[in-house]
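request received
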Amino acid sequence: RTALSTAPPPEKKRWLRAYLELQRLQAPPQRRSEQPNWDYHAEIQAFSHRVQENFSLDLLKTAFVNPCYIESEEARRRQLGLDKDAVALQLQDNTALAERGLRFARAYLAQCFEGAYPELPAKGVEALVSFLTSQELVSYVAQNLSIQDLTLCRDFPAPPDVLQRTFLAVIGALLESSGPERAGIFVRDFFIPQLIGKDLFEIWKVVNPMGLLLEELTKRNISAPEPRITRQLGVNTVLPVYFVGLYCDKKILAEGPGETLLAAEEEAARVALRKLYGYTENRRPWDYSKPKEGLAAEKAISSN
Amino acid sequence: RYVRQLQRLQLLFSPTAADARGARQFVEEAAQDFARQHPDVVLYVSPRSGPGPAPVLRAEYLNGTVRDELIASKTSEEIVQLATKLANQSGLDIIRIRKPFHTDYPSVQGQWHPLTNKPSILTVQGPRLQPQ
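response:
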């Protein structure tokens, strides 16, 4: 009576299979670290190989620890009733590394832009740098580098400011492990391609381009521009097109189109500013060749 | 720089089923070499005992796509080729590409618009000068 049958166990019933499949599909999404097949150490090593950088692994592991994770872990341990010593985690969080990374990234990017576009004023450089270190962009880059799987944080999916902090902490960790040159090449390779296809005045919102243009021209000792209509089409229709050209001393500076005369003049001022700052669509693409030796000292000074 | 889009490969197979023979041979012979040649891909080998579904190679990419490839009744070399093919792919969906070219700078001299080569209304047409 107690004979064990070696036949394969009967399969689950058809209706049960349907119910279990529905449960599986309706289950809330979980962190990758809670799903089967996850090895944190191997994943971190793979991450450092993927970005082709040599990290010191403890710095990298601290870079992924967020303060919200430490608080939630301590709260959980306290709830489970452990004593004081066990409650305090021996983990450092990544705020210090994130701050260092942010300062270095801003300084390096500002230096890059000042070298590449010497005519661009400080406000323009500031606008470009803050666009490149903004939450959406940094969290987008971090998501596509699988940082959202490796971060330790309280909520799932990780909010964009957590991803931004973690990515900047990774840059800080790289700065500590490999020095400012490698970190600079890393920042250049991952942030500057995000500018491709973007126009200057999409990133830098300028309210009064004409006033800015007048300031720039007085700096260069050129007389004030005189706007004239160059071409016009469909004046009496619903969709007129006016091309307004800005002339300085009877020589053409820039020409811009618009629906009304005011809009066309503003657009012409923007085109003139783009030409003056050297940020036109047909400028030379960014130079990704090896950096020269002289920049290393400047970077070291700026990062400290 | 180049970032390999394949994040991890999970090899799910059964240690006794007949169609998982190629998978078992792959694990014994070629898995370590594959892992050494691709240090940025994490290879998980998880045998699941008992009669289960067919052996599958699950590839997870950086943009979140998960692709399952059946490896039932495949030899070890075929699995190596399949794994390298997955490692060199990106995680974009495999659909028809509308055009095989793309450019971020569609125009260098400025896009043509109907007023490009027309003279502006400011050019003055004076009287024709007689040749002296």
